[in-house]
Structure formats: C-alpha cells, structure tokens
C-alpha cells in the first residue's frame, strides 16, 4: 500500500482501540452507579471497537504492510451524569468520523480503490454510531 495510507491506517488502529478503552471506562462508571443496562450497552461498544481495530490490523496484513502498534492513551473523562457520558460518546464519535473521512480521502488521493471499498464499511458505521448516540441523548433529555 501507499506509505501514507498505511500510516493513517495504522494510526486508525490506535484510535479504535482508544475508543474501546474509553467505552470500557464509561461502562465501569455506569456499573459503579448501578446503571447495569447502560454498563452493558457501553461494554458491547467496547467489544465492537476492538473488532474495528482488529479488522484494520488484518487488512494491513492481507495487503502485506507491517502493523505498527503505538501506546494506547489512558481514557479521559469525568462524568457526573449518564447524559454527560453520552454527550462525550457523541463528541468522541464525531472525532472518529472525521478521522475515517480523512482515511477515506487518502485512499482516494492515492487511487487505492480496494482500500476505498474496504473503508466504506467504516464510513457507514460512523453514521450509525453518531445516530445511536444522538437517539440516546434525546431520550435521556426527556
Ligand atoms: Fe470504531 Fe465508534 O468508531
């Protein structure tokens, strides 16, 4: 793969695993508050984010590019309410959406059609993730 594309794809692995850690921290916050349903939902997001990272990892390998793993930052967040948690979820997913859009742009810039098609799944997934967070925020606000 083009070197720049492989670099941003490696960086995206880190972002997906960071997202997983963030959801895991949020899940524990909810569990400590006795909000078991929210804790479960957030834990499932953790599992999904790990798969998002793993699929990028596998894709780099299938394309014959080395995986470069970097340290995962400590997930940051101080939440007072479940609404704070989900506002943070939405804000975070918007950052991920921008990062995926950049990755898709790079794949198009270097005319890597196979990578562009692979990344389409991530583009679509981000629409769903922002939509789910928005729905939950609206319900919590009622
Ligand atoms: Fe893998 Fe929530 O983005």
What does this protein structure show overall?
- By secondary structure, this protein is mostly helical.
- Helices cover 80% and strands 0% of the residues.
- The N and C termini lie far apart (48 Å).
- The mean pLDDT is 97.
- MU-OXO-diiron (FEO) binds at residues 16, 19, 49, 52, 93, 96, 129.
Please provide a brief summary of the model:
This protein is mainly alpha-helical.
Which terms summarize this structure?
80% helix; mainly alpha; binds MU-OXO-diiron; 142 residues
User: What is the C-alpha radius of gyration, as a whole number of Å?
Assistant: 16 Å
The total strand number stands at 0
Total of helices? 4
Task: Name the overall outline.
Answer: elongated
Q: In angstroms, what separates the terminal alpha carbons?
A: 48 Å
Major β-sheet, in short?
none
Can you lay out the helices and strands and say which pair or pack?
Elements (H helix, E strand, L loop, with lengths): L2 H30 L3 H27 L19 H28 L3 H29 L1
Helix pairs in contact: 1-2, 1-3, 3-4
The chain binds MU-OXO-diiron.
The site of MU-OXO-diiron (FEO) has 7 residues, from helix 1, helix 2 and helix 3.
């Amino acid at each position: 793969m083009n070197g720049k594309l492989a670099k941003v794809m490696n960086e995206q692995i880190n972002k997906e695993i960071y997202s997983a850690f963030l959801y895991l921290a949020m899940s524990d916050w909810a569990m400590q508050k006795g909000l078991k349903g929210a804790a479960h939902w957030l834990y499932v997001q953790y599992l999904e984010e790990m798969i998002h990272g793993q699929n990028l990892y596998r894709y780099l390998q299938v394309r014959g590019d080395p995986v470069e793993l970097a340290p995962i930052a400590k997930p940051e967040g101080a939440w007072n309410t479940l609404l704070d948690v989900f506002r943070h979820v939405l804000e975070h997913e918007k950052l991920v959406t921008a990062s995926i859009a950049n990755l898709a742009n790079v794949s198009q810039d270097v005319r890597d059609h196979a990578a562009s098609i692979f990344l389409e799944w991530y583009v679509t997934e981000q629409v769903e993730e922002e939509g789910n967070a928005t729905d939950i925020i609206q319900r919590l606000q009622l």
